[in-house]
Amino acid sequence: MTTNGSFQLFSSSDDKPSLGLGFLESSEPPLPPPPPSIEVLSSEVSPSVKYTVEPVNLDGLTLLKGRVSTKEVLGLPNSDLVPGIYEGGLKLWEGSLDLVKALRSEIQNGHLSLKGKRVLELGCGHGLPGIFACLEGAAETHFQDFNAEVLRCLTIPNVNANLAEKSQPDNASEARFFAGDWGEIHQLLPHAHESEMNSEHGQATGYDVILMAETIYSISAQRNLYGLIKKCMIHPHGVVYMAGKKHYFGVGGGTRQFLSMLEKEGKLILCSFGHVNRTVIYSCHVG
Ligand SMILES: C[S@@+](CC[C@H](N)C(=O)[O-])C[C@H]1O[C@@H](n2cnc3c(N)ncnc32)[C@H](O)[C@@H]1O
């Protein structure tokens, strides 16, 4: 459903079951210029926005998530997203919970360790996968969202709430926060390169693990997202864990388009390791 350019997209875990994946607008109007890319300091938590915290149970693991009002934070009605203005970071989408479950099972099966790693969560919103990485001993975790307000009012308070209880000061993960569009944010991200990954010469710097959930719903944004991943992944052992839906009705994006773009270029190899609920989870390595 669309109201003044704002959309109800797919179901989020903040909504009580809304299994009708209604998204009825298909033409994509031109987007406004993106907001400037900035680093948001962890001290910049918004003091005026009401933030309440509640537990989320993930098959035995409890994380904390905040709840804020979209109207209070952004002055917008309670919509899932407003393309080019607000990209959905204030809601908790089910893919991010499914991604945490998948990462946890990868660690339990001995296929993944996050200890000492450089982790980047793209399109973080609440940031639960990145928070999980901090709790699992990542050396650095960088969180990115389109909207600085999301980081100030939700992501940073969520990181504080989860890490206050569980993290030891001497092995705390360094958490940093970056707002901006996928087409430009590489200029700010500390471990991104200026140019895209060169498979012959590799890259000496980058992130060991890139996490992202529910980020591939917009066809027009997929190319920039893919370009950013190539600028951020360390070569040759970098890995991306992504969670998404096969198809986001009405917007046309989804894992199918994203995978076919990757297959055409052949620079990244994809492995599907399954479904959690309606979410497909992929890991993706340098080819
Ligand atoms: C649907 S929300 C998902 C949020 C979170 N990962 C979750 O699953 O709960 C999409 C996320 O991608 C980010 N995003 C979408 N389009 C973007 C763009 N063009 N540039 C930067 N970030 C973008 C939004 O800020 C938001 O955090």
**Helical content, roughly?**
25-40%
Number of strands: 12
> Can you identify the CATH class?
Alpha Beta
Cα-to-Cα separation, first versus last residue:
40 Å
**How is the biggest beta sheet arranged?**
8 strands, mixed
Q: How are the strands ordered across the major sheet?
A: 3-8-7-6-9-10-12-11
Helix/strand structural class: alpha/beta
Count of helical regions: 6
Our Rg estimate from Cα atoms comes to 18 Å
| CATH topology-level name | Rossmann fold
CATH A-level architecture: 3-Layer(aba) Sandwich
Keywords: Cytoplasm, Methyltransferase, Nucleus, S-adenosyl-L-methionine, Transferase
Family: Belongs to the methyltransferase superfamily. METTL18 family.
Organism: Hibiscus trionum
GO molecular function: protein-L-histidine N-tele-methyltransferase activity
Describe the structure.
The chain is an alpha/beta fold and 287 residues long. The chain has one domain: Rossmann fold (3-Layer(aba) Sandwich). It has six helices and twelve strands. The strands form three sheets. It has an eight-stranded mixed sheet with strand order 3-8-7-6-9-10-12-11, sandwiched between helices. A two-stranded antiparallel ribbon has the order 1-2. α3 runs parallel beside α4. The longest helix has 19 residues. It is globular and about 45 Å long. The structure holds S-adenosylmethionine. S-adenosylmethionine binds next to α2. The site of S-adenosylmethionine has 20 residues, from α2.
